[in-house]
Amino acid sequence: MLALSVRTPSHVRKLMEKQGYKFVLNHSAVKPCYWFRKSIMEGRTCYKNKFFGIPTWRCIQMTPTASFCNMQCVYCWRLNASDVPMSQRWIEVPEGKWDDPEEIAEE
After folding, report:
1. Which of 14, 34, 50, 60 is the 20 to 30 A CA-CA neighbour of 79?
2. What is the dihedral of CA 27, 96, 98, 16, to 10 degrees?
3. Is residue 69 in some structural domain?
4. What are the pLDDT digits (tens) for 33-87?
5. 0.70 cut: is pTM over it?
6. In this structure, is residue 65 part of a structural domain?
7. Is 1 buried (19+), middle (13-18) or exposed (0-12) by CB count in 10 A?
């Protein structure tokens, strides 16, 4: 039986692209962190660089499940169910063929 690929819904994809996300394959997304731009344009860095010497201008926000996480963690930067209208919310993580982690990393 051929399983269809899990895809991020188009309305969610448009919203996330407007926020600066770039999609990788079918359902993964990546976005440079806030300090990426600040460090390149203004030479400012976040606390991770200041206190720990981490090159934060290389940080990204990455998720292999761009719009299907239902954990709703307090400080999560990802879209979650409460961010979209009730009629467009997902109840469960969809079944289907998920992108291979190695392919996501290569892209």
Report:
1. 50
2. 10
3. yes
4. 888 888 888 988 888 888 998 887 788 788 887 766 666 777 776 666 666 666 6
5. no
6. yes
7. exposed
